[in-house]
Amino acid sequence: MFHNEDIESGITTNKVYSRQQMISLLQEASPEYSSNSCQWKLGEMLKSGEIVRTGYDQYMISTGKARPVYSPDYSETASAVMARIAEKYPYIAFTVFETVLMNEFLNHLVAQNTIFIQAEKDIASYVFRYLQEDGYRNVMLKPAKKDFDLYWSKDTIVVTDLVSEAPMHASDPHKITMEKMLVDIYCDKLIKGTFSRAEYPFIVEQAFDKYRVDRTSMLRYARRRNREMEIAHVLDADLN
Questions:
Q1: Which domain holds residue 40?
Q2: How far is CA 29 from CA 6, 18, 24, 163, 195, in A?
Q3: Confidence grade of residue 55 (pLDDT, cut at 50, 70, 90)
Q4: Residue 225 sits in the same domain as residue 129
Q5: Rounded CA separation 236/240 (Å)
Q6: Which of 13, 122, 198, 210 is 20 to 30 A from 59, alpha carbon to alpha carbon?
Q7: What was the pLDDT predicted at 13?
Q8: In terms of DSSP bridges, do strands 114-119 and 156-161 run parallel, antiparallel, or are they unpaired?
Q9: pLDDT-wise least confident of 29-43, 72-86, 142-156
Q10: What confidence score (pLDDT) does residue 5 get?
Q11: pLDDT of 49
Q12: How many structural domains compose the chain?
């Protein structure tokens, strides 16, 4: 028979496994059982809650509570900007990120906020002009790092292009997903200058501990930003 204590001793908490890796662990714990029996056991462990599915072909040992999907807690300013853009351009794809969202995961908090609007390509300039006309004072369109550093002020709004194939919320498409945020704060030249880069592994650890994060979706997006191997290295070092 399967011995759960042997199975669980081979599974590391907070480590993500593929289905095949889980089946291999089951076979190591009970080598007398066939692959089909191990697949049946995996299904039973999912039903009982011993392990949980965290994304496509991603499984983890249960910690006793289901991790929620991340829902960003925006400032009043960011929420207002999001609502204004959605009202003016109801059919365009865009997401909103603000640097104070990182404070949930940082040791050294971000004191001065910056709001980043990523809008679909060829639309960013229209969003930029609209926000200026709507009375927002410090709005930048795709600034170079030196211009951002020179002209930045509190609650600056930065409008840039939305990278294609970004992971989006199905029900709240303008709110940033955890997968997108973890990649953007590592890749974006402006965002990564607003916090200590040394804290990135800690942010990742906290995010995976508190929320349901789809590693496959995250790395697919990291590939679009040409940082898949670097971010995968952080995930493997920090979560295994």
A1: 4-61
A2: 6, 17, 9, 44, 44
A3: low
A4: yes
A5: 6
A6: 198
A7: 64
A8: parallel
A9: 29-43
A10: 47
A11: 67
A12: 2
pLDDT value, residue 109: 86
Residue 215 CA to residue 213 CA, distance in Å, equals 6
User: The whole model's pTM is what?
Assistant: 0.75
Average pLDDT of span 147-155: 93
| DSSP codes of every residue in the chain | ---HHHHHHTS-TT--B-HHHHHHHHHHH-TTS-HHHHHHHHHHHHHHTSEEEEETTEEEE--SSPPPPP-----HHHHHHHHHHHHH-TTS-EEEEEGGGGGGT-SS---S-EEEEEE-TTTHHHHHHHHHHTT-SSEEES--HHHHHHH--TTEEEEEEPPTT--B-SS-TTBBPHHHHHHHHHH-TTGGGGS-GGGHHHHHHHHHHHS---HHHHHHHHHHTT-HHHHHHHHHHHH-
Q: b/e string for 14-29 if b means 16 or more Cβ within 10 A?
A: eebbeeeebbebbbeb
The answer to whether residues 42 and 88 belong to one domain is: no
Query: Residue 74: is its pLDDT beyond 60?
Result: yes
Decide if 68 is inside a domain: no
Regarding whether 160 and 220 lie in a shared domain, the answer is yes
